[in-house]
Amino acid sequence: MADYIGIHGGKVQNFSTNPPAPIEGQVWYNETTGTIKYFTSNPAGAWASGGNLNTARDQTTGAGTQTTGLCFGGGPPVDDETESYNGSTWTEVNDLNTARRALTGAGADNTAALAFGGTTGSNTGVTETWNGTNWTETADLNSARNFAGSGAGTNTAALMAGGATADDGGPPILANAETWNGTSWTEVGDLNTARRTIAGGGIVTSAIFAGGDTGSTVGIAESWNGSAWSEVADLTTTRRRAAGAGTSNTAALIFGGYISANSALTETWNGTSWTEVADMSTARQLLGAAGASITAALAFGGGDSVATEEWTSPTTSTKTVDTD
After folding, report:
1. How confident is the model at residue 65 (pLDDT cuts 50, 70, 90)?
2. Residue 233, Cβ density class (10 Å: 0-12 exposed, 13-18 middle, ≥19 buried)
3. Would you give the DSSP letter of residue 233?
4. Which residues are registered as beta bridge partners of 288?
């Protein structure tokens, strides 16, 4: 009969604790716990449960990172509540000055964010900045809108595009884009395809926006280089009302949304193509997101949910072997 070393090529070693830097597939015996353990990794990444929001909400948005996230606005019907995330728990902080849903957000962390657009029952271009304590109203968007494309960037340098001008999110649907410089909004080059409920990520000079709807759901993706939009490869799965995160027009993550029902699908973008990776645990649409990285992101709310999920790529874990 073959022994372990013959099959795997390595000895099962004894450790008083787990080894400090195990390799993929390594098995060992932990003398302290009296258990056999092994190490596994998932280079494609995975979602894990995070702390629940205090207030369930739909049509919400967010800013920040996986460990310094911010959720604000939403509905129904309209919500002004803001919550801050520390990597495990959401805490209610000071409200938006203007309660609204279907708004867009941007920001580096939970101390510096930007909220803009949305609907209060009437379409709005209101913009507010967050300093970690309070929201302050600043210059409005040039074109009031809701369900606009994901806000890429920070509270001093942001990008948004698309959206709808009717209070209910209906037509007309916009193609125009605007950039924020910390003081005012400036109209820049239009999307090639007008649409609403787009997802994406990046920064003010390098971003990718994908999916959404023109009246019909589309998988169109467009890359922004700081001056113009270029159509690139479509999403693997056409969808609308998803959320996104990313660092640039060569590294982005799209998750959730609506196909013919709520979706849990996640796709990554490498600058050339989209790849399906691990699904979220909870399928949902019109959710909020935080994360300037495709290796660490946050998904929350959507469909009147309090659920939060944390994306990590690659993921690693130590497993205990059941010997009973």
Report:
1. very high
2. middle
3. P
4. 300
The tokens for 47 are 């979602």
Task: Give me the residue label for tokens 């919500």.
Answer: 79
Residue type, 148: A
Distance separating alpha carbons of residues 182 and 196, to the nearest angstrom: 24
CA atoms within 13 A on the CB side of 261: 3
Residue 250, both tokens: 């060569």
Which residue segments constitute the domains of the chain, with CATH numbers given? Answer: 4-42 (no CATH), 46-312 (2.120.10.80)
Check pLDDT > 70 for residue 6.
no
Of 31, 33, 39, nearest in space to 13 by CA: 31
| Tens-digit pLDDT profile for residues 112-160 | 999 999 999 999 999 999 999 999 999 999 999 999 988 899 999 999 9
Residue matched to tokens 């999110």: 169
pTM summary value: 0.85
Integer Rg of the chain from CA: 21
